[in-house]
C-alpha cells in the first residue's frame, strides 16, 4: 500500500501517528501525477517545488510539536476557477494564461491556515460556465469517456489517486457529475456556508464551493477546517428515515442509474433504515428551468465585463449570455429567483419528517467522448434549493464505469447530512474501505 | 467655472464637444484634491501619473475619432474595497497595506472599457464592515462631522469636487448615508444587476456595488456603461404616483429629517405628482433585524479565513462575527434569509400601484465627531429587499449640513427608477443645476 492510495482520513491518521510524513505523501502524489496525468490530464499546473517545500515545513512543525489542524501536511487540488496566491489562475481561458492572483480564495486560506498544502490547479470548463470550452480531462476509468464537468480535473485527480482532496465549484451540477462519473465522494455544502470569495463569479445566487474526497470522513475533515459544524459520530442506520426521490427528470436516468438507486434502497433497508418513496411536489417541477434562467441571467452581469473588455476574443457562448442574442430578460430572472426562494420552503415542508433525500447521482454512466461533459439535470435542482448534497459512489453500470447516488439534506444542517452520509455510504458504496486503482 | 465643478454629464458633454480635454479635467481634479484632501481625507491613494497618462491616451483616441463610450476620458474614484488592477487594494486594513490586486473589479473593468479613468482609491470603513476601524474621512461641509460610511471617501470626494463620480458598496446603508450626509446623488442598483466580482465579500446576499454623482444624469451615465437598461427621457412629474413611507424607524428620524421629507412632498405635489402616504405593512417591521442577522451571519463565512489566517492581528470586532462570542446561529440566518425573500414579494404587492416610494435619506444631518459614521437604519431595509434606491439631496438642516431623501424602486427596474428620480430631483434638490463648493 503506497501513500497515494490512502484516503485523506487515513493519511491524516498516519501522519498524526508519525507513520507517514507530509513529504512522503506529497512525493507519492507527485509520482502518481507524473505516471498518469499524460493520460488523465487533470492538472493545468502543479506547484511541485512549492508543495514539497511546504511539506518539509509542515513536517518540521510537527516534529516541533506544532500541529495546525487535522489536515496538517495534507496536499489538495484546486479547480482553476478558485484562486491560490502565487499559482496560475487561468480559469481555463486563453485570455488569462499568464494570470497569477495575489490572494488565496477563502477556502484555500482556511486550508493553508490549517496546515494543508495546495498542490496545483485542476482543469475546468472555461470559467466553470456553460458555453465556454471544455476541460481536456479524461475519465480515469476510461480515457475515452468524459469525467463530467465542470470540476473535471478535481474529480478525476481524486479518483485517479493524484491527491486525496480537491476543491471544485457547483453552479448547476459541476461538483456532483464528476463525483458520479469518476466514482468519488463530494460535498456541495449549503449555499452561503463557505466563503465563495476568490472563486470566479458566474451566478451569484447559485455558485457554491465544494470538495472531493475518497470517503465521507474525508469530506467531513475539510468541512471542519472550513468552519462547518460536523457531528462527532455517524448516525446509526436504524432510526434513519430516508426519502427516495427520482426527481422530475427520472425519464432522463438510464436503466443502470435506476438500478444503482434500487440497490442502494435495498441495502439501506437491509441495514435497518426506513426508506420511503416520495417525489417532489408538482409545483417544484420547474426547478431545472429556474436554474437555467438564474444561471444565464446572473451570468449576464458576471460576464458583461469580459464581453466589453475582450470583445471578439471572448468565448462566443459566454458573450451571448452577456450581450445576446437570447439574453435572459430581467423579469424572467426575477421570477426565477422568487420561484427558487419559495421552492426552498416547499421542499423543507415536504420532507420535514425525513433525515435526508436519496436520488440518482447523474443520468447514468459517463458518456463516451470528451465533447460533452454530460447533463447537470439531476443536480441543478438541489443547487437552486441551496441544500447540502453528498455524492456517494454506488457501484458500476453495464459499461464498467462508476455510478453514484446523491444524499440531499437541509439548509445549514450540513453536519447532520454528513453524519447520515457516513452511515449510508458504508452500505451503498461497494468500494467503501477498499482502494480502487484506475489505469 | 473650472472643470472640477462640472457634473459628470456636463463634463462628458464638454469633452464630446471638444471644449474640455480629459487631461484638463483630470488635472483640475488632482489640483482640487491637492488643495482639499489634507482636510477632507477622502483618498487612501491617488494614481496621479497613471490617470494623467490614461487621460492623454483618451484625448489622443478622441482626436483620432475613436470614442469608447459616453464616459470616455472621465475620471472616477473607487472605494478601497473594490479592486483596481495595479493600484493599492488595502480594504483600509493594516493587514493589507501592500496588497496590489491583478484584476479590475467588474464595475471598474466596464468603466475602463468605456474609456473612463480610475483616479485612485477612497477611504472606507475597514473591509466596509461593521466592527472594524472607521475611515479617516471628514465631512466636506464641516470637517468636525462624519461624512457617513462605510463609503465615506467616495461620498466625500464627489461632494467636495475631487472627482465627478465614485464607486462605493452597500451591505446595510453604506452608499446612502454618505449621500445624505455629504449632499450628493447615489444609486444602489438592484441586487445582482451589477457584477460584485472584485469587491471584498461581506454578506453575499446583501453586498451591492453602487456609485455617486452630482446629478441623476450622472448616475444614469454610469448605469448605462454598466449594462443597466436606462430610459431615454425623464418621467414627467404629472402622472407619477409616489408613496411616502417614513419606515418603521420614523422615530429615529430628526425633526430636520422629517421636515426635508415634508418639503419634498409639497414640491412634488406642487409640480403635479400624486403623492400618497403609505407605510410598510406591519409584517415588514423586522427588516432591519433581518439585515443585522444576515450581515453578521453571512459575515461569519466571509471573515472566518481572516480570523484563522491572521488570528490576533485581525480586527476584534470582525473576528467576533466569525468566531464569536455572539456569532449568529445557522437557524437564525436561515430564518432571516427566508424572511427577506418573502418580504420582497410583500413589498411589491403593497406598492404595486405606485411608481416609487419616497423616504428619509438618513436619520438627519451628519453627527458631530468621527467616531461613529451614523446609523444605517433608514437604508438597511431596502438593501434586504434588493430594490434599487436613488439618494437625492433635499436641502439643509438646522446645522447647515445636507439632508437627503431616498427614492425606492422595484427589482430589476432600475432604469424606470432613474427616470422617475430625474424628475423628482429637479423639484426636490434646491441645489439642482447649481454648483455647491464646500470649504
UniProtKB/TrEMBL annotation, chains A, B:
Domain Amidase: 24-418
Any one GO MF annotation of this record: catalytic activity
Pfam families xrefs: Amidase
Region (Disordered) residue spans: 133-154
InterPro entries to which the protein is assigned, alphabetical: Amidase (IPR000120), Amidase_dom (IPR023631), AS_sf (IPR036928)
PANTHER family noted in UniProt: AMIDASE AMID-RELATED, TRANSAMIDASE
The protein's name in its UniProt record: Amidase
Amino acid at each position: 500500500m503506497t501513500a497515494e492510495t490512502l484516503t485523506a482520513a487515513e493519511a491524516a491518521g498516519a501522519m498524526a501517528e508519525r507513520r507517514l510524513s507530509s513529504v512522503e505523501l506529497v512525493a507519492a502524489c507527485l509520482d502518481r501525477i507524473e505516471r498518469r496525468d499524460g493520460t488523465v490530464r487533470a492538472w493545468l499546473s502543479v506547484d511541485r517545488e512549492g508543495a514539497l517545500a511546504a511539506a518539509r515545513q509542515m513536517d518540521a512543525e510537527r516534529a516541533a510539536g506544532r500541529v495546525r489542524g487535522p489536515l496538517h501536511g495534507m496536499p489538495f487540488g484546486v479547480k482553476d476557477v478558485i484562486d491560490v496566491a502565487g499559482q496560475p489562475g487561468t480559469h481555463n481561458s486563453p485570455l488569462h494564461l499568464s494570470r497569477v492572483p495575489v490572494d488565496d480564495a477563502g477556502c484555500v486560506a482556511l486550508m493553508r491556515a490549517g496546515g494543508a498544502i495546495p498542490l496545483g490547479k485542476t482543469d475546468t470548463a472555461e470559467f466553470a460556465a456553460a458555453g465556454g470550452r471544455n476541460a481536456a480531462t479524461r475519465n480515469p476509468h476510461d480515457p475515452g469517456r468524459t469525467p463530467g464537468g465542470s470540476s473535471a480535473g478535481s474529480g478525476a485527480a481524486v479518483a485517479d489517486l493524484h491527491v486525496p482532496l480537491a476543491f471544485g465549484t457547483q453552479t448547476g451540477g459541476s461538483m456532483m457529475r464528476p463525483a458520479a462519473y469518476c466514482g468519488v465522494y463530494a460535498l456541495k455544502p449549503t449555499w452561503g456556508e463557505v466563503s465563495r470569495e476568490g472563486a470566479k463569479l458566474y451566478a451569484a445566487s447559485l455558485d457554491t464551493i465544494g470538495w472531493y474526497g475518497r470517503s465521507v470522513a474525508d469530506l467531513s475533515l475539510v468541512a471542519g477546517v472550513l468552519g462547518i459544524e460536523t457531528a462527532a459520530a455517524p448516525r446509526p442506520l436504524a432510526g434513519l428515515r430516508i426519502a427516495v426521490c427520482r426527481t422530475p427528470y427520472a425519464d432522463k436516468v438510464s436503466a443502470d442509474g435506476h438500478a444503482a438507486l434500487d440497490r442502494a434502497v435495498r441495502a439501506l433497508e437491509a441495514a435497518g433504515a426506513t426508506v420511503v418513496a416520495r417525489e417532489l411536489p408538482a409545483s417544484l417541477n420547474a426547478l431545472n428551468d429556474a436554474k437555467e434562467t438564474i444561471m444565464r441571467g446572473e451570468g449576464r452581469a458576471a460576464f458583461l465585463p469580459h464581453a466589453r473588455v475582450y470583445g471578439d476574443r471572448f468565448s462566443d457562448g459566454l458573450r451571448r449570455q452577456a450581450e445576446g442574442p437570447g439574453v435572459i430578460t430581467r423579469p424572467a430572472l426575477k421570477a426565477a429567483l422568487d420561484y427558487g426562494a419559495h421552492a426552498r420552503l416547499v421542499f423543507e415542508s415536504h420532507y420535514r419528517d425525513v433525515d435526508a433525500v436519496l436520488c440518482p447521482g447523474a443520468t447514468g454512466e459517463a458518456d463516451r467522448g470528451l465533447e460533452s461533459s454530460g447533463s447537470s439535470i439531476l443536480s441543478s435542482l438541489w443547487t437552486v434549493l441551496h441544500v447540502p448534497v453528498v455524492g456517494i459512489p454506488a457501484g458500476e453500470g453495464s459499461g464498467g464505469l462508476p455510478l453514484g447516488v446523491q444524499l440531499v439534506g437541509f439548509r445549514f444542517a450540513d453536519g447532520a447530512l454528513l453524519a447520515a452520509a457516513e452511515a449510508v455510504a458504508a452500505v451503498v458504496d461497494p468500494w467503501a474501505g477498499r482502494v480502487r486503482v484506475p489505469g
